[in-house]
Amino acid sequence: MNIVVLDRLTLGEDLDLSQAENYGTVTIYDATAPEEIGKRIQNADVIFVNKAKLGAENLKDAKNLKLICEAATGYDNIDVAYCREHGIGVCNVPGYSVYSVAQVTVGMVLNLVNRFSEYTRYTADGTYSKGGSANILKPVYHELYGKTWGIVGYGSIGAKVGEIAKALGCRVLAFKRTPVDGVSCVDLDTLLSESDVVTVHIPLSVETRGLISRERIAKMKNTAILVNTARGAVVDEEALCEAVKTGKLAGIGTDVYSVEPFDEDSPYFLVKEQDNVCLTPHMAWGTIEARERCFGEMLLNMQAFFNGEIRNRVEL
Questions:
Q1: Would residue 282 show up in a list of annotated catalytic residues for this protein?
Q2: 231 flagged as catalytic
Q3: Which candidate in 231, 293, 297, 315 is catalytic?
Q4: Domains plus CATH for the chain?
Q5: Catalytic residue among 282, 292, 311, 313
Q6: Which tens digit of pLDDT belongs to each residue from 203-262?
Q7: How far apart are CA 201 and CA 98, in angstroms?
Q8: Are the C-beta atoms of 84 and 107 separated by less than 8 Å?
Q9: Measuring CA to CA, which residue among 269, 271, 203 is closest to residue 233?
Q10: How far does CA 129 lie from the centroid of its chain?
Q11: pTM for the complete prediction?
Protein backbone atom coordinates (compact mmCIF):
# COMPACT_ATOMS: atom_id res chain seq x y z
CA MET A 1 0.00 0.00 0.00
CA ASN A 2 1.27 3.45 -0.93
CA ILE A 3 0.78 6.17 1.66
CA VAL A 4 1.58 9.75 0.64
CA VAL A 5 2.03 12.53 3.20
CA LEU A 6 1.58 15.83 1.35
CA ASP A 7 2.48 18.49 3.92
CA ARG A 8 4.33 17.08 6.92
CA LEU A 9 5.76 20.46 8.01
CA THR A 10 2.23 21.56 8.95
CA LEU A 11 2.33 18.75 11.51
CA GLY A 12 5.69 19.89 12.85
CA GLU A 13 9.06 18.55 11.76
CA ASP A 14 9.57 17.10 15.25
CA LEU A 15 6.61 14.72 14.94
CA ASP A 16 7.64 11.08 14.42
CA LEU A 17 5.71 9.59 11.49
CA SER A 18 7.57 6.29 11.38
CA GLN A 19 4.62 4.24 12.69
CA ALA A 20 2.91 4.72 9.32
CA GLU A 21 5.55 2.43 7.81
CA ASN A 22 3.83 -0.48 9.58
CA TYR A 23 0.99 -0.11 7.10
CA GLY A 24 2.81 0.28 3.79
CA THR A 25 5.32 2.29 1.79
CA VAL A 26 5.34 5.89 2.98
CA THR A 27 6.38 8.86 0.83
CA ILE A 28 6.71 12.09 2.80
CA TYR A 29 6.73 15.59 1.33
CA ASP A 30 7.46 18.51 3.63
CA ALA A 31 5.17 20.71 1.54
CA THR A 32 3.34 20.38 -1.77
CA ALA A 33 2.46 23.25 -4.09
CA PRO A 34 -1.02 23.09 -5.68
CA GLU A 35 0.39 22.30 -9.10
CA GLU A 36 2.42 19.39 -7.67
CA ILE A 37 -0.42 17.56 -5.93
CA GLY A 38 -1.80 15.66 -8.93
CA LYS A 39 1.52 14.08 -9.82
CA ARG A 40 2.44 13.21 -6.24
CA ILE A 41 -0.80 11.35 -5.51
CA GLN A 42 -1.07 9.44 -8.82
CA ASN A 43 -0.14 6.11 -7.25
CA ALA A 44 -1.40 6.76 -3.73
CA ASP A 45 -3.76 4.36 -1.97
CA VAL A 46 -3.93 6.67 1.06
CA ILE A 47 -3.26 10.39 1.40
CA PHE A 48 -2.36 12.03 4.69
CA VAL A 49 -3.09 15.75 4.41
CA ASN A 50 -3.53 18.80 6.61
CA LYS A 51 -3.75 22.00 4.55
CA ALA A 52 -3.25 21.04 0.88
CA LYS A 53 -6.48 21.38 -1.11
CA LEU A 54 -7.83 18.20 -2.68
CA GLY A 55 -10.53 18.39 -5.34
CA ALA A 56 -11.55 17.17 -8.77
CA GLU A 57 -8.64 18.91 -10.51
CA ASN A 58 -6.00 16.88 -8.68
CA LEU A 59 -7.92 13.80 -7.47
CA LYS A 60 -9.08 12.76 -10.94
CA ASP A 61 -5.78 11.07 -11.79
CA ALA A 62 -5.38 9.26 -8.45
CA LYS A 63 -6.81 6.02 -9.79
CA ASN A 64 -5.73 3.88 -6.83
CA LEU A 65 -6.90 6.26 -4.13
CA LYS A 66 -9.08 4.68 -1.50
CA LEU A 67 -8.78 6.93 1.54
CA ILE A 68 -7.90 10.49 2.55
CA CYS A 69 -6.88 10.97 6.19
CA GLU A 70 -7.28 14.59 7.28
CA ALA A 71 -4.87 15.66 10.03
CA ALA A 72 -7.46 17.96 11.59
CA THR A 73 -11.03 18.21 12.77
CA GLY A 74 -11.97 20.62 9.98
CA TYR A 75 -11.87 19.26 6.43
CA ASP A 76 -12.86 22.25 4.29
CA ASN A 77 -9.70 21.68 2.20
CA ILE A 78 -11.22 18.46 0.79
CA ASP A 79 -13.98 18.22 -1.82
CA VAL A 80 -16.03 15.72 0.14
CA ALA A 81 -18.81 15.61 -2.46
CA TYR A 82 -16.31 14.52 -5.13
CA CYS A 83 -14.91 11.85 -2.82
CA ARG A 84 -18.40 10.55 -2.03
CA GLU A 85 -19.25 10.36 -5.72
CA HIS A 86 -16.04 8.50 -6.56
CA GLY A 87 -15.97 6.10 -3.63
CA ILE A 88 -13.05 7.68 -1.79
CA GLY A 89 -13.22 7.48 1.99
CA VAL A 90 -12.49 10.61 4.02
CA CYS A 91 -11.65 10.57 7.74
CA ASN A 92 -11.04 13.46 10.08
CA VAL A 93 -9.79 13.56 13.67
CA PRO A 94 -12.34 15.08 16.03
CA GLY A 95 -11.46 16.17 19.52
CA TYR A 96 -7.68 15.72 19.47
CA SER A 97 -6.88 19.42 20.01
CA VAL A 98 -9.50 20.35 22.60
CA TYR A 99 -7.05 20.96 25.43
CA SER A 100 -4.47 22.66 23.23
CA VAL A 101 -6.87 25.09 21.56
CA ALA A 102 -8.71 25.85 24.79
CA GLN A 103 -5.39 26.57 26.53
CA VAL A 104 -4.22 28.97 23.82
CA THR A 105 -7.64 30.63 23.56
CA VAL A 106 -7.74 31.38 27.27
CA GLY A 107 -4.08 32.40 27.18
CA MET A 108 -4.86 34.98 24.49
CA VAL A 109 -7.79 36.32 26.48
CA LEU A 110 -5.68 36.64 29.63
CA ASN A 111 -2.86 38.30 27.69
CA LEU A 112 -5.23 40.94 26.33
CA VAL A 113 -7.24 41.46 29.51
CA ASN A 114 -4.14 41.77 31.69
CA ARG A 115 -2.40 44.09 29.17
CA PHE A 116 0.72 41.95 29.31
CA SER A 117 2.27 43.55 26.22
CA GLU A 118 2.58 46.87 28.03
CA TYR A 119 3.42 45.54 31.48
CA THR A 120 6.16 43.14 30.39
CA ARG A 121 7.70 45.90 28.28
CA TYR A 122 8.08 48.06 31.41
CA THR A 123 10.40 45.46 32.94
CA ALA A 124 12.17 44.56 29.68
CA ASP A 125 13.05 48.13 28.64
CA GLY A 126 14.10 49.32 32.10
CA THR A 127 11.16 51.63 32.74
CA TYR A 128 10.28 49.76 35.94
CA SER A 129 13.87 49.54 37.22
CA LYS A 130 14.50 53.25 36.68
CA GLY A 131 11.09 54.47 37.79
CA GLY A 132 11.63 54.51 41.54
CA SER A 133 8.20 53.08 42.35
CA ALA A 134 7.32 49.59 43.53
CA ASN A 135 4.34 49.49 41.18
CA ILE A 136 3.26 50.54 37.73
CA LEU A 137 -0.51 50.33 37.34
CA LYS A 138 -1.11 51.96 34.00
CA PRO A 139 -2.79 51.05 31.73
CA VAL A 140 -5.88 50.11 33.71
CA TYR A 141 -6.82 46.44 33.49
CA HIS A 142 -9.88 44.58 34.73
CA GLU A 143 -10.88 41.36 36.44
CA LEU A 144 -12.69 38.74 34.40
CA TYR A 145 -14.68 37.82 37.50
CA GLY A 146 -18.29 38.87 36.99
CA LYS A 147 -17.85 39.59 33.28
CA THR A 148 -19.77 37.90 30.45
CA TRP A 149 -17.89 35.51 28.20
CA GLY A 150 -19.63 34.67 24.93
CA ILE A 151 -18.70 31.47 23.10
CA VAL A 152 -19.54 31.17 19.42
CA GLY A 153 -19.72 27.45 18.71
CA TYR A 154 -20.19 25.27 21.77
CA GLY A 155 -18.70 21.97 20.65
CA SER A 156 -15.96 20.18 22.54
CA ILE A 157 -13.50 23.10 22.34
CA GLY A 158 -16.10 25.76 23.09
CA ALA A 159 -17.40 23.74 26.03
CA LYS A 160 -13.88 23.37 27.46
CA VAL A 161 -13.32 27.14 27.15
CA GLY A 162 -16.69 27.65 28.83
CA GLU A 163 -15.63 25.43 31.70
CA ILE A 164 -12.50 27.53 32.23
CA ALA A 165 -14.44 30.78 31.87
CA LYS A 166 -16.84 29.66 34.59
CA ALA A 167 -13.89 28.78 36.83
CA LEU A 168 -12.67 32.36 36.37
CA GLY A 169 -16.03 33.62 37.62
CA CYS A 170 -17.56 34.58 34.29
CA ARG A 171 -21.16 34.37 33.21
CA VAL A 172 -21.08 32.23 30.07
CA LEU A 173 -23.30 32.65 27.01
CA ALA A 174 -23.20 30.25 24.07
CA PHE A 175 -24.30 30.39 20.46
CA LYS A 176 -25.04 26.85 19.33
CA ARG A 177 -27.23 25.50 16.56
CA THR A 178 -28.73 22.92 18.93
CA PRO A 179 -29.05 24.30 22.49
CA VAL A 180 -27.59 22.18 25.29
CA ASP A 181 -28.17 21.98 29.02
CA GLY A 182 -25.72 23.55 31.44
CA VAL A 183 -25.12 26.80 29.56
CA SER A 184 -27.26 29.77 28.56
CA CYS A 185 -27.74 29.48 24.78
CA VAL A 186 -28.74 32.71 23.03
CA ASP A 187 -28.87 34.07 19.50
CA LEU A 188 -25.66 35.46 18.06
CA ASP A 189 -26.65 39.13 18.15
CA THR A 190 -27.56 38.87 21.84
CA LEU A 191 -24.28 37.14 22.62
CA LEU A 192 -22.21 39.76 20.83
CA SER A 193 -24.03 42.73 22.35
CA GLU A 194 -23.86 41.43 25.95
CA SER A 195 -20.38 39.86 26.08
CA ASP A 196 -17.20 41.40 27.43
CA VAL A 197 -15.15 38.58 25.91
CA VAL A 198 -16.09 36.71 22.73
CA THR A 199 -14.24 33.58 21.62
CA VAL A 200 -14.95 31.87 18.30
CA HIS A 201 -14.90 28.07 17.94
CA ILE A 202 -17.22 27.37 15.01
CA PRO A 203 -16.19 25.37 11.92
CA LEU A 204 -16.03 27.02 8.51
CA SER A 205 -18.91 26.21 6.18
CA VAL A 206 -21.09 27.99 3.65
CA GLU A 207 -23.35 29.04 6.53
CA THR A 208 -20.58 30.29 8.84
CA ARG A 209 -18.35 32.11 6.34
CA GLY A 210 -18.38 35.78 7.38
CA LEU A 211 -20.67 34.99 10.31
CA ILE A 212 -18.97 37.60 12.51
CA SER A 213 -19.76 40.36 10.02
CA ARG A 214 -19.14 44.09 10.07
CA GLU A 215 -22.73 44.64 11.19
CA ARG A 216 -22.38 42.17 14.03
CA ILE A 217 -19.04 43.56 15.18
CA ALA A 218 -20.78 46.95 15.37
CA LYS A 219 -23.15 45.47 17.98
CA MET A 220 -20.30 44.64 20.36
CA LYS A 221 -19.29 46.70 23.38
CA ASN A 222 -16.41 49.14 22.87
CA THR A 223 -14.75 47.51 25.89
CA ALA A 224 -15.02 43.98 24.49
CA ILE A 225 -12.29 41.75 23.13
CA LEU A 226 -12.69 39.06 20.47
CA VAL A 227 -10.47 36.01 20.03
CA ASN A 228 -10.73 33.67 17.04
CA THR A 229 -9.08 30.23 17.13
CA ALA A 230 -11.52 28.59 14.69
CA ARG A 231 -11.13 29.54 11.02
CA GLY A 232 -10.11 32.93 9.66
CA ALA A 233 -12.95 33.31 7.19
CA VAL A 234 -15.61 32.96 9.89
CA VAL A 235 -14.83 36.61 10.71
CA ASP A 236 -14.88 39.70 8.48
CA GLU A 237 -11.16 40.32 8.93
CA GLU A 238 -11.13 43.81 7.50
CA ALA A 239 -13.96 44.91 9.78
CA LEU A 240 -12.32 43.27 12.80
CA CYS A 241 -8.99 45.02 12.24
CA GLU A 242 -10.71 48.31 11.58
CA ALA A 243 -12.61 47.93 14.85
CA VAL A 244 -9.46 47.44 16.93
CA LYS A 245 -7.64 50.21 15.06
CA THR A 246 -10.40 52.76 15.70
CA GLY A 247 -11.14 51.73 19.28
CA LYS A 248 -14.47 50.11 18.50
CA LEU A 249 -13.06 47.00 20.17
CA ALA A 250 -10.67 46.97 23.13
CA GLY A 251 -8.61 44.10 21.77
CA ILE A 252 -8.46 41.20 19.35
CA GLY A 253 -6.59 37.93 19.19
CA THR A 254 -6.45 35.46 16.34
CA ASP A 255 -4.55 32.33 15.47
CA VAL A 256 -6.27 31.75 12.11
CA TYR A 257 -6.48 33.69 8.87
CA SER A 258 -8.40 33.45 5.60
CA VAL A 259 -5.01 33.37 3.82
CA GLU A 260 -2.23 31.54 5.64
CA PRO A 261 0.33 32.82 6.16
CA PHE A 262 -1.08 36.34 5.93
CA ASP A 263 0.94 38.80 3.88
CA GLU A 264 1.29 42.56 3.53
CA ASP A 265 -2.09 42.78 1.83
CA SER A 266 -3.84 41.38 4.89
CA PRO A 267 -5.66 43.81 7.20
CA TYR A 268 -3.82 42.14 10.08
CA PHE A 269 -0.52 43.46 8.73
CA LEU A 270 -1.53 47.01 9.67
CA VAL A 271 -2.44 46.18 13.28
CA LYS A 272 0.00 43.37 14.12
CA GLU A 273 2.19 45.55 16.37
CA GLN A 274 -0.59 47.14 18.41
CA ASP A 275 -0.45 46.34 22.11
CA ASN A 276 -4.12 45.32 22.10
CA VAL A 277 -3.63 42.82 19.27
CA CYS A 278 -2.39 39.26 19.84
CA LEU A 279 -1.63 37.34 16.64
CA THR A 280 -0.18 33.83 16.54
CA PRO A 281 0.83 31.68 13.52
CA HIS A 282 -1.93 29.02 13.53
CA MET A 283 -0.33 27.18 16.44
CA ALA A 284 -3.23 26.86 18.89
CA TRP A 285 -3.94 23.25 17.92
CA GLY A 286 -0.33 22.16 18.02
CA THR A 287 0.97 21.18 21.44
CA ILE A 288 3.18 18.12 20.97
CA GLU A 289 0.63 16.08 22.91
CA ALA A 290 -2.16 17.15 20.54
CA ARG A 291 -0.09 16.42 17.42
CA GLU A 292 0.89 12.97 18.66
CA ARG A 293 -2.74 12.30 19.53
CA CYS A 294 -3.81 13.46 16.06
CA PHE A 295 -1.36 11.25 14.19
CA GLY A 296 -2.24 8.26 16.33
CA GLU A 297 -5.91 8.77 15.49
CA MET A 298 -5.09 9.03 11.77
CA LEU A 299 -3.40 5.63 11.92
CA LEU A 300 -6.40 4.16 13.73
CA ASN A 301 -8.71 5.69 11.10
CA MET A 302 -6.70 4.05 8.33
CA GLN A 303 -6.59 0.71 10.11
CA ALA A 304 -10.35 0.77 10.70
CA PHE A 305 -11.05 1.66 7.06
CA PHE A 306 -9.14 -1.32 5.69
CA ASN A 307 -10.74 -3.57 8.30
CA GLY A 308 -14.15 -2.60 6.94
CA GLU A 309 -15.04 -0.54 10.02
CA ILE A 310 -16.57 2.94 10.02
CA ARG A 311 -14.51 5.37 12.09
CA ASN A 312 -14.54 9.18 11.80
CA ARG A 313 -15.85 9.01 8.23
CA VAL A 314 -17.13 12.36 6.99
CA GLU A 315 -18.14 11.47 3.42
CA LEU A 316 -20.84 8.95 4.40
A1: yes
A2: yes
A3: 231
A4: 2-94+288-306 (3.40.50.720), 98-279 (3.40.50.720)
A5: 282
A6: 888 999 999 999 999 999 999 999 999 999 999 999 999 999 999 999 999 999 999 999
A7: 11
A8: no
A9: 203
A10: 39
A11: 0.90
